[in-house]
Amino acid sequence: MIDYHIHTNISADCKVPVRLMAQAARDAGLKEVGFSEHIDLGVPVGPDFTVDFAAYEAAFEQTRREFPELNMRRGIEAGLDLRYKDEIAALLNAHPCDFVIGSLHLVFGHDPYYKDIWQQYSKREIYDEYMRLSLETARSCDYYDILGHLGYIGKFCPFEDKMLRYDEYADAVDELLKTLIERGKALEVNTGGLCMTPSTMPETAIIRRYYELGGELLTVGSDAHYESAVGHAVAETLDGLKSIGFRYVCAFDSRKPQHIKIP
Question: Which fold has domain 2-261?
Answer without folding.
Answer: TIM Barrel (3.20.20)
